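Annex B. Sample input.
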Amino acid sequence: KTQQSYPLNLYLCRGCGLAQLLYDMDVDAPLIQENELTSVSLGIVEHFRNYADETLGILNPPKESLVIDVGSNDGTLLKFFRDHGMRVLGVEAASIPAKAAVDAGVETINQFFSSNLADDINSQHGQAAIVTANRIIANIHDLTDMIQGVRTLLAPDGVFIFETGRLVDLLDDLLFDTIYHEHLDYAAVKPLKLFFSRHDMELIDIKHFPVKGGSYRGIVQLAGGSRKVSPAVAEMLAHEETLGI
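Annex B, continued. Sample output.
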């Protein structure tokens, strides 16, 4: 039978270096993965345990500092931050994972994240020491609105931490099956640095993990923040330029 088809072409922006799809089939009806729970994903629970431990070891925020996870799923990551004495809040659009998080005692807002929602969160909960967003920035249709919301939520010395797929691994390992309509962009260091700079933010650290076929974890602060930029940022940028990314 004839079935409807959609363009699936991956382009490279010669201005900023971002690899991205130009056709967005879900812009009017964003994909919500109702039945995908972090807690049953192979290896991810331990990854998130280490994520929380490493993050707090590096940043050392005071006890009871607020940690907000955008796209928090069933609250797996936030539970580990909570175990370290942090206040936690999740934002999750899918109702089944959001309910699982609430049932586990993790306060969760069952909505899509936006700058308007960030204003409401700020007025009710105050600003956050840490805002996280894992495996979702590649899926978001309006990253400008999202990052404006993140800026609203961050305390002056707060940080935004994200994990996303890594273009180098996609190319090196021929991960063509990770190119699909839910993923709108495929990250490298250069476009990430440029994007955050345009929004008065600064990429201060980036690390490579093998999880999900190859991922980046980046740490971002507001422009002019007190933390020094890790040499890893320049090293990874130089490595990608050597590879011709």
